[in-house]
Specification:
By secondary structure, this protein is mainly α. The chain contains four helices and two strands. The protein folds into two domains: 1-30, no CATH class; 36-120. A two-stranded antiparallel ribbon has the order 1-2.
């Protein structure tokens, strides 16, 4: 509903959104979302912290198998110490995988992913890809 001067007419429940080409289009928020598009700032920050923790855990899983077999690559003083060290590293690796699996299947995580999906569907323009070089502290947990 463009007006002659190029301005968009404001309609209740419709949001005007500019895209990277400078065009303005009207977007209806996803059904069931409020004026803040579903979540307030505190919820968004909590969700971002959860995603950061998930990303850190996932990144650390990349070295899980090398750390698990590391006792097998060293010369052991006895077969018992080799078995003990390998058992400990296997238990640690298993715990890390189970912790990540628990985090992924958590109800709060599902809510965060659902909110992200709704937000992407409501406003698909101007979503920038995440880059590690833009966030040098991405692997540090907030204290």
């Amino acid at each position: 509903m463009a007006q002659p001067n190029g301005l968009q007419k404001h309609l209740p429940g419709v949001k005007n959104v500019g895209n990277i080409n400078g065009e303005i289009k009207q977007v209806n928020p996803a059904p069931g979302l409020g004026n803040e598009e579903g979540w307030d700032e505190a919820q968004l920050e909590k969700g971002m912290a959860l995603l950061k923790e998930m990303h850190i855990q996932l990144r650390n899983l990349r070295t899980c198998i090398p750390r698990m077999i590391e006792p097998l690559t060293t010369i052991a003083t006895s077969p018992e110490s080799l078995f003990r060290d390998f058992s400990e590293s296997t238990k640690t690796a298993n715990k890390e995988v189970m912790d990540f699996k628990t985090l992924m299947s958590d109800e709060e995580t599902k809510k965060v992913f659902e909110q992200a999906r709704k937000s992407r569907n409501a406003n698909p323009d101007n979503i920038k890809p995440w880059r590690a070089i833009d966030h040098p502290d991405w692997l540090q947990r907030d204290v």
